[in-house]
Design a protein that fits this description.
With about 240 residues, this protein is α+β, with helices and mostly antiparallel strands. It is built from nine helices and seven strands. Strands 1-2-3-4-6-7 form a six-stranded antiparallel beta barrel. A hairpin with a 2-residue loop joins strand 2 and strand 3.
Length: about 240
């Protein structure tokens, strides 16, 4: 699918020489980390400092082990999809080992899974059901580095902390975004929600996660100049 002008970062078109170099590199290099991406997940996220802003996200997931996943997050699954951030996902066991201040940066996934918002496009539910049962007990930390939803043609400013949708007021995803996603993949979020009723929820979701729900406060990153640590000559 061709990218629209609004989706293309500023810059010159690829030269023939650059295209040939890239093709040659693909043949000679292993690109092993990328090959470990085993799942495509489509879901939604909200900016923690402005929860009126909802975005559709496409996670390309690498499972490092049973307790830890890392995701490259794009704004679409098309060939021109833009890399907009990264999310780390950990089990409840690892989450409980974090200090309380760190836990405030993470969100729970139980509602996102149970409500049918989290989907693996084109993969039958019966195939992904065991994975969904595991994910319902996980926590994620998602930093958005490129706010394409506001029209940024380049990654601008510091990263923004994102939150998972929840069943409360501003934490609910806009219906028009859900419909657009469902139409694209020919699915029904409402039907998925019904089919996931039996997925077990965590017995206890740590209240340090989803911090905004309890305190109506968010976390932002500001870039400010600071004094450099002096470099010591290693060979005086």
């Amino acid at each position: 699918m061709a990218a629209s002008e609004a989706e293309i970062p500023p810059g010159k078109s690829m030269t023939v020489e650059q295209t040939m170099l890239d093709k040659g590199a693909q043949m000679l290099q292993t690109l092993e980390p990328i090959k470990q991406m085993s799942q495509h997940v489509c879901t939604f996220a909200l900016y923690s400092n402005d929860m009126h802003r909802h975005i559709e996200t496409h996670h390309y997931v690498t499972r490092i082990n049973q307790d830890f996943l890392q995701c490259a997050v794009y704004d679409s699954d098309d060939s021109h999809g833009r890399l907009i951030g990264v999310e780390y996902i950990i089990s409840d066991r690892l989450f409980e080992g974090l200090n309380p201040e760190e836990q405030k940066l993470w969100h729970s996934h139980a509602y996102e899974i149970k409500s049918g918002l989290w989907v693996n496009p084109r993969v039958p539910e019966m195939v992904v059901k065991p994975e969904l049962e595991n994910l319902a007990r996980t926590y994620g930390k998602f930093w958005c580095t490129w706010q394409t939803d506001r029209g940024d043609k380049l990654p601008m400013g510091p990263p923004a902390l994102m939150m998972s949708p929840q069943a409360v007021n501003l934490g609910m995803v806009r219906p028009d975004l859900i419909k657009k996603r469902d139409d694209k993949y020919n699915i029904s979020t409402d039907t998925l929600k019904v089919s996931r009723v039996e997925i077990g929820e965590p017995e206890w979701i740590n209240p340090q996660a989803d911090y905004w729900k309890q305190h109506q406060k968010c976390f932002v990153v500001d870039a400010e100049p600071v004094e450099m640590k002096k470099i010591v000559d290693p060979f005086p």
